[in-house]
Amino acid sequence: MTAVLELEALEVYYGASQALFGVNLEVREGQAVALMGRNGMGKTTTIATTCRMLPLRGGAVRFGGRDISALPAFRAARLGLGLVPEGRRCFPNLSVTENLIAAARPGPWDLARVRAFFPRLQERADQLAATLSGGEQQMLAIGRALMTNPRLLLLDEATEGLAPVIRQEIWSAIASLKSEGLSLLMVDKTLSEILPLADHCVILERGQTAWQGKAKDLTEEITDMYLGV
Ligand code: ATP
After folding, report:
1. Which CATH number is correct for 3-80+152-226, 3.30.450.40, 3.40.50.300, 3.90.180.10, 3.40.630.30?
2. Which pTM was predicted?
3. Counting atoms of ligand 1 from 1, which one is nearest the CA of 15?
4. Coil, strand or helix: which one is 48?
């Protein structure tokens, strides 16, 4: 299996303060990778760096075998990085359909397919994004990323703050994207929900890759050490 994404020894700063101290991570074609760690350990920074929204001081981001470390975010996105950002961030004053169309790029995912995938987005087609429920906004955020026809979908806390039944709905949508062969990089804190989907896990501790391996090799000792409260 070839790697779709390779992060090599990422070093990233916010001003003078260093946030990543050598993060290593790989997502192979068709794989679902869970990026985990306690609050403030660098998960969102790693996602933002992958999408080229933060400058690198060291290391490299390779996507589809190409070094994209120096590319601006909009060009990296065009290569097939589909981001579902933390907090969803849809255009609040655009309708559901306008949000989807604004993201469209050619490929198998078009308006009809996204609406079939999330029928709620069809039902709410003309409603302003700001007036959607949290779960519907999350579906819209995923739908927008799919409209870009990504090669890799990056999901940053896709189920945060949602009711259990909606969380299940979102996870089952993500599972069906995985079964179609889409490569996934997922951040989530609820291990019981993310682990069944993950082929591989990466745990960050203070901006470094502290552990990585197969989801099935993640022992209670490791979760207690790096993820326990
Ligand atoms: P959480 O689970 O709370 O979202 P995280 O693992 O995603 O946490 P990051 O948000 O990547 O962690 O933060 C990593 C480090 O970088 C933290 O020490 C955080 O305080 C710092 N940091 C994050 N964003 C900024 C920013 N905009 N300016 C300055 N420091 C930041």
Report:
1. 3.40.50.300
2. 0.94
3. 29
4. helix
